[in-house]
Amino acid sequence: MGALPASSTSMKTGASPFPKSAEPSVERSFCQMIRSAFLILAVASLAPLQAVADPPTAHLPMAFEATIEPGDTLDSVLGHAGIPATIRAEAALALSGVYDLTDLRPGHRIEWAAASGDSASLTRLSLFVEDGVEIALRFDGPLAAQRIDPPVRETDRRETLTLDGTLYDALTARNAPERFAVDLTAVLAGQVDFRRDLKGGETFALVWQEDQLPDGSIAGEPRLSYARLELRDRVLELVATEAAGPVIVFEDGEAVQRSAAPILGARLSSVFGRRNHPVLGGVRMHTGIDYAAPVGTEVSATGAGRVIFAGSIRGYGTTIDIDHGGGVVTRYAHLSEIAEDVRVGSRVKAGDEIGAVGATGLVSGPNLHYEVRVDGRPVDPKDQDALPEQEIASADDLNALATWRSETGFISGTDGERG
């Protein structure tokens, strides 16, 4: 075997193959690589654990909503959603300070939010009721409800119609308030019979105000300012200078009646005369007229006078009698309540609120029984002579009449040919 080369004999086990001057820097680089690798592995192993334990949406509240159906209550809806009874009771108590929960109706909405979808961790609750009103309740502090009214814009509307059918049909064809058909029939009943006196082709003009919500829907009740019915032989006009006050009826420009309907927007459910009694049965004399309306609907005095009775009468239930002088008394019966300032001896004006519709006494459902007595004898309230003339039209009424005539293009017979 030959001898090894001299260069091979100089290498020893563990000796560095690199020049002596390069050994420290190479070793440091190698160690840094090892540490970097361990660091990358550690970060990579921790990152997935953080993502699973704390996703970005883990604590965001979840929103829910429900629409009130017939037979539903706030408690039943929230109970079906799994909200505990204690929370439901606390929410109902807070909400009732702002809104009567018995007024919830089909179509109203309930919205609420719960942290992480946990029904026991409510963060807010809102009722969306009539006219876009929101009753809001928050749970991030002491429970307190807040009523939030939407912004409304008052708009004026004017319509001139030609009656080829019923007034109701003419109003609906122009998207005018249908309730005006009832209101005008009641107020003008002493001057015109809408079933017999209208032959077709009559001109009817209306001016009213309504409150419009941001979505274009109408809030509250429309307010009639002026109406004109041009018959073949005369012209009837109605002027209301106050939204809830009395109205003046003019015939051919002369004030003939100052009064208020006892109730607005209600259906005439029974007229004066003999009828089958809805509770007692048999044919009996009905001494007034009835207006069907929900409990709580405002009832107004039809004329100025003095309250001579405010209490309960068998059969009539809760009742108010007003003496208008000249032997004329009006009666308002089956009320649910009497206004706080109405008592025996109180003076009232036409249009003053005196009570609210109810179902007291012998009735089959909520309604107002309105009766007129002359010298103690019941007469038909639609008789134009039932209530004596009490006041003439004021200067404001006459100015309003001239304004609305001008704005609706009417020329009186004394100024020239009617148009």
Beta-strand residue percentage = 35-45%
SS elements, strand count: 23
Structural class: alpha+beta
How far apart lie the N and C ends?
Answer: 142 Å
CATH superfamily descriptor of the largest domain = Glucose Permease (Domain IIA)
Helix-residue proportion: 10-25%
**Poorly predicted parts:** 1-22, 40-54, 275-283, 415-419
Work out the helix count: 7
Name the average pLDDT. Answer: 76
CATH class of the largest domain: Mainly Beta
CATH architecture of the largest domain: Distorted Sandwich
Which fold name fills CATH's third level, the topology of the largest domain?
A: Glucose Permease (Domain IIA)
Number of domains: 3
Describe the structure.
Its cofactor is Zn(2+). It comes from Paragemmobacter aquarius. One of its GO terms (biological process) is proteolysis. One of its GO terms (molecular function) is metalloendopeptidase activity. With 419 residues, the chain is an alpha+beta fold. It has three domains: 86 residues, Nuclear Transport Factor 2, Chain: A, CATH 3.10.450; 106 residues, Nuclear Transport Factor 2, Chain: A; 113 residues, Distorted Sandwich (Glucose Permease (Domain IIA)). The strands form four sheets. Strands 12, 15, 16, 17, 18, 19, 20, 21, 22 and 23 form a ten-stranded antiparallel sheet that branches. The protein has a six-stranded antiparallel sheet with strand order 6-7-8-9-10-11, sandwiched between helices. Helix 3 packs antiparallel against helix 4. It is globular, with a radius of gyration of 40 Å. The chain starts with 5 loop residues before the first helix and ends in a 12-residue tail after the last helix.
